[in-house]
Design goal:
291 residues, two-stranded antiparallel sheet, 2 strands, mainly alpha
Length: 291
């Protein structure tokens, strides 16, 4: 029973992180039809900045978080305005190649500025001690971080699905010309989508780093969000959350009962099995072609 509880709680914690990362990927895709392969770096950089600044004690923790998020938003928006806008009208793979280039540049900068040293984030206000669930001791801090991530993910889904802002983002991504004729500033929507995606990735990185070691290994966590959005549906915000939770729990059970070496096997095996039945993902938009 203990292993079962650990798998559920640990998987849900990882799934909450995947959900936040996946939501950022879906927002960018819905708005600009671009798959951002630098999203893992968007997650890692804020976590490193917070770990360094908060660890030095030079700034209050809240200010370090704001500074880290402002930095990654500036990088994201600058990339869109200077590079990605120039790919409009070109094949979609050109934009994706540009994100590969951004990821490589950010990797180099991370190595130069931060090195390979492992760091940690001391998140103030987190509860100490453990909670006993069905005889299994679980870290209170891990439960709190998981709850925060789930709440943030839920807020984003609600905003995207049932508010005017969400309608504007969906309209600009679906038909930019028609949206512009309707009075929507499409450029601002695209910039805002990239900014919000960077914030979600940064928050996910900071929350994840609060209970784990902060190093370049976190890039693997960012990449693991790709199966989550493919499983849930690449254009669905609800699918991003459901896919993230499913992948996280699946990986939790795999690591507990089979071993860490089987995590990728079960993750991508389950993804392929679902895509054979639902090629668009569980909640993705079904594309119909009439011949």
């Amino acid at each position: 029973m203990g292993n079962f509880i650990v798998s559920i709680v640990g998987g849900a914690a990882l799934g909450a992180t995947y959900a936040l990362i996946s939501l950022g990927l879906v927002l960018v895709f819905r708005a600009t039809w671009t798959f951002n392969f630098a999203h893992g770096q968007f997650m890692l950089i804020p976590a490193l900045v917070v770990a360094v600044l908060a660890g030095s004690g030079s700034m209050p923790f809240g200010l370090t978080v704001l500074a880290a998020l402002a930095l990654i938003v500036a990088i994201s928006v600058a990339f869109y305005l200077t590079i990605l806008r120039r790919t409009v009208g070109m094949p979609h793979f050109m934009a994706m190649i540009a994100t590969f280039g951004l990821a490589a540049i950010l990797d180099g900068l991370i190595s130069i500025v931060f090195g390979a040293r492992e760091r940690s984030i001391e998140f103030p206000g987190l509860p100490a001690g453990v909670v006993t669930i069905a005889g299994t001791r679980i870290s209170s801090a891990s439960l709190a971080i998981t709850a925060i991530a789930f709440v943030l993910a839920t807020v984003v889904v609600v905003v995207m699905r049932w508010t005017y802002l969400g309608t504007v983002i969906r309209a600009a991504g679906h038909d930019p010309a028609l949206a512009a004729q309707g009075g929507i500033h499409v450029k601002y929507v695209y910039v805002g989508s990239w900014a919000l995606a960077a914030i979600l990735a940064g928050v996910a990185g900071i929350l994840y780093g609060s209970t784990q070691v902060v190093n370049t290994g976190m890039l693997a966590v960012g990449m693991a969000a790709f199966p989550a959005i493919l499983l849930g549906g690449i254009d669905s915000v609800e699918g991003a959350v459901v896919g993230g939770i499913c992948i996280g729990i699946l990986q939790g059970f795999t690591a507990t009962y089979l071993g860490g070496q089987y995590v990728n096997l079960t993750t991508y095996g389950a993804l392929l099995a679902v895509l054979m039945v639902y090629p668009q993902g569980l909640f993705g938009t079904r594309m119909v072609r009439r011949l």
